[in-house]
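Tokens as discussed.
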């Protein structure tokens, strides 16, 4: 049996479209992996507001950006001022975040990893977390803005 996890980006979509896409894909829980779950321009996606919107739609919410976020505050996890994914991967907190996801996946919880980027190929949910989950044998599937699913298979 192959286990999978979904990903979704906020981009510039409305909260209604976002929730509709989650419902269309039978998402049970959103795992927020944004380092800073705040948007000046999209207040519905601020951590507390988003959690309330999701709960009202009977979708769970869990913040994991402190473990799985792609913009670490620690300068030791950066190279030339940019996040260094290889350094992030080696941290205990990141590994704990992956373990959390694996447990959810293996208990058949239909989860979607949330980040701000609309284009998953330019986002850490694909280039960091998604890559590591794929290396462990999980399928990573991306929910597009129109609600359709895309699976990008890479060769390692």
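Sequence:
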């Amino acid at each position: 049996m192959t286990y999978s996890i979904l990903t979704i980006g906020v981009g510039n979509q409305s909260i209604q479209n976002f929730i509709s896409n989650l419902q269309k894909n039978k998402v049970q829980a959103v795992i927020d992996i944004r380092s800073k779950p705040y948007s000046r321009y999209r207040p519905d996606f601020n951590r507390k507001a988003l959690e309330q919107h999701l709960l009202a739609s009977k979708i769970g919410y869990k913040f994991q950006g402190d473990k799985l976020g792609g913009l670490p505050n620690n300068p030791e996890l950066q190279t030339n001022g940019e996040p260094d994914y290889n350094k992030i991967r080696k941290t205990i907190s990141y590994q704990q975040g992956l373990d959390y996801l694996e447990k959810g996946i293996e208990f058949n919880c239909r989860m979607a990893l949330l980040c701000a980027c609309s284009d998953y190929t330019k986002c850490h949910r694909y280039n960091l977390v998604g890559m590591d989950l794929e290396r462990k044998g999980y399928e990573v599937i991306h929910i597009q803005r129109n609600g359709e699913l895309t699976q990008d298979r890479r060769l390692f």
